[in-house]
Structures
1.
Amino acid sequence: MEVKVAKFGGSSLADAGQFKKVADIVKADDKRKFIVASAPGKREKGDIKVTDMLYECYDKAVNDEPFEDLLAKIKERYDGIISELGIDIELDADFDKIKASFSNMAGRDYAASRGEFLNSKILAAYLGYQFLDAAKYIFFDDAGKYDWDKTRAKLRPKLEESENAVIPGFYGSMPNGTIKTFSRGGSDITGSIVARAAQAELYENWTDVSGFLIADPRVVKDSEPIKTITYAELRELAYMGASVLHEDAIFPVRSAGIPINIRNTNRPQDHGTMIVSETAEKPEHIITGIAGKKGMSVITIEKDKMNSTVGFGRNVLRSLEKNDVSFEHMPSGIDTMSVIIQTDALTGKETAILDEIHSRVHPDQLYIESDLALITIVGRGMKSTRGTAAILFKALADSRVNVKMIDQGSSELNIIIGVAEEDFEIAMRAIYDAFVQIKK
């Protein structure tokens, strides 16, 4: 059976008008048999997401404050969607149960999950699909870790016997039956789980953008979209801050070899971005994407004959471990080692870390430099293209950007550079222009 699983985010299901767009998309392809729904998102700037309203409502209940008026506002929003869609469904009993559960302190995870639960019931009624409560088919173990084996044993047979269904995103259940949510944005994970359980040919993730862009549009205006990207490239970009899809949503489908298609609910005609395991498709540009993040610091250790000192690197890293600090990158030379760390992680620990490094390795020089930004260029086309580094560094030199750090893995999939935070935007635009605009 050929199956597509489609997940629709909060912006795609924010109001009745968006519901109608979703229905048109679902009905346009009879392979879209299983739909994963988020809670209603913002309808316009300044609006409040239903999930945030539910958190606030539950917090009031916990603090023994009146919460009924806020719960009534949440119900009004759902009732408005139902009325505009003209469907025969009422949620009075559901809200009575929610009210009682809030009063009995059912937990913040339960409170947050009701947004997806209610929205999915409405969408199922509107589409004429079966509603499957995620709490009955998606499971966590006693430690709160997602349990694929138990989920597969329950969810796969149910999907096989169902012609079509709507499943709420974001949550599942613990062994004792209580509700447990994934991290924020977890509906992406649910969609990926359902796609794997259904052995789908494609997992469609519908949102309010037409896929990934080569660069952050807040930095590079009118950035081109990425047509095809591999999971490996996506991981590199996501690690450096590029974010459209919840990072944990990659793994369930990646392990099953199922591609992901990021699509725009408001522009269904757009191709979007295909995320695949491997591709023979020649990339349009040498690079696939650019991403970066500010707020980094570098600890530099200098010592003669460092390279011949057994255990030198281990002792430096033990100094970080002792202070519960992880590192991002560790470029080094014969007599120099640099350790890149998020500045926030160093707060209040700088002196202790430096003292520990001094006592362990006795460096000739040791200092910290802050206000560093990291930028990565990622692309499967880099490996087969000569002169990639030359294009990169010429673009930065022409823009008068000083490169403070360079790091490249042996896979040649990416190059990471460090620049001063004040040069971050200039560097991003220069790199984009050198690799993308040059093709126009």
2.
Amino acid sequence: MPAKIYTDKDADLGALKGKTCAVIGFGSQGHAHALNLKESGVKVIVGLYKGSKSIPVAKEQGFLVFDTAEAVKKADVIFVAVPDTKIPACYEADIKPHLVKGKTLLFSHGFAIHYKTIVPPADIDVILVAPKGPGHIVRRQFTEGKGVPALIAIYQNPSKKAKKTALAWAKGVGGTRAGVLETSFKEETETDLFGEQTVLCGGTCALVQAGFEVLVEAGYSPEMAYFECLHELKLIVDLMNEAGIAGMRFSISETAKWGDVLVGPKIIDAGVKKRMRAALKEIQNGKFAKEWVAEYKGGYKKYRKLLADGEKHPIEKTGAKLRSMMPWIKKRDIKGAQASYK
């Protein structure tokens, strides 16, 4: 049976009328949700820790900013928009002491609830609204009158109004413009982690680097390897995004199509699927989550080393040179982004 897709007509912003919504954190998702909700007519405040570099940024955007604990006290709906590994400490110190019956705790990813790094009291609603895209896209699409598709999930519903709240929030951030699906915290968490690890981030990055290395090791120029294995990837993915895999194949040459259907399955073969299943198993049994939490508690040592090693890959130097020739490609400060983990 096809999943029900909720749109604007199914959601009522009135469910948030008269309520104060606190966005805890002002990073990628936090700033997008806060701004989109405010422009949808919702009363939004921002909660941040003392000394946060985001305080002046949030104030410049017109928000009242409070210490996290104070924001939780004042709010009816609390959106926890801090990194998964930092949620437990933030929750114990600043959120839990001020959760009273009738409040709603909201997340954009189910990690903390599904793996029980926090356990909310039974008398509050616990919901999820997860746009299927990074925060800056959630914000940009909203300002353009469009929206990023979203998921909603209900974990606790003592008020019997949790779904209305979730749909209202999804509408406020633009999700119902594109379509909203209902899922569970378990399904959202496990599929999201699997997608990131095996396809969207981990799988794609490893595939691109391997292809680049094979061409360069065979004597081809790094520039040619970059264009063939990385630069053109966006063009192919854009076609998939617009028309699916079959639609992408319609737009490429017959030679490319033949190479696609003949060679692709030899590269991404049964062995890859076997290792994907192993990765999924470690997500399902909690092993990945435990290792990630331990990595955070240990000071991110392995994590930072692996990121630093990746930055030294030859494809990065080649890419930086070639991208500098294309000023229309937006430049990003990855050093500044990494500083947020310190």
3.
Amino acid sequence: MMDDFSMNLKKPTKHHRLVARVVKLIDAFEDEGQPTLAYLAERLSVSPFHLQRVFKREMGVSPRQYAEQRRLGSLKEELRNGRSVTTALYEAGFGGSSRLYETSNRKLGMTPASYGRGGRGAHIFYAVGTCTLGVVLAAITEIGLCRVCFGDTAADVEKELAEEFPAATLERADKDMSELLAILGALIDTGKRNFFGLGLDIQITAFQAKVWSALILIPEGETRSYGDIATELGMPKAARAVGRACGSNPVGIVIPCHRAVGADGKITGYRWGLDRKKALLDAEQRRSK
């Protein structure tokens, strides 16, 4: 992958140079496992969010996904050379068969989140700011966005984050993530989605995936009832389950669960308050006229 990148690089920009340095660090990493986003950002003196955004935009994958692909490539090479599976696993840096299975499952979409229950094993960076809906918190892992929530105070949103990820390492990084907060503010105020390829790193069931995908397809300025969504999914009796899936959305505004309403069109059931849901819908309807 590095050779292809180098050959296509005619006039290196600062972003190209940053990506090349990240690739070099990943390829040279000798400890068990792979370098974390925090480690890479610290070595290169940049913010984790900036590093993640630039790398994914230029390479099409996150630094962690790149490292996994490199290790999978090494594993395949070791197996082709006649090594046993166990030996090949360790030579490729997986440290054990469970790590390989976790990686494979994530690539197949079976376990989308990169962390365990309660955020176990995750280093989560978060930032708190203000927007037209009040206080907003955004949180990211090495893979992508894992939380967007709203509240009346910073203490409110930090409490929600801590309750969702009690087993994670949480690190506040307002300055480093100011760009992400600005992007979320623009999404709220103008509807402009400009995440530069930043993905989602969220716990998700197959049913939630169907509901959340349906929510994203609802045009701005429009709504669907929970029953409508259930019918669209081929499960007309699952309106309540759709409502629960909307209520469990971990990334408010990014997955627009506010566009789901009651059977009579009334605004119901928004985990961050009905006033915020109404404000979002009113703003979208004004923009769509």
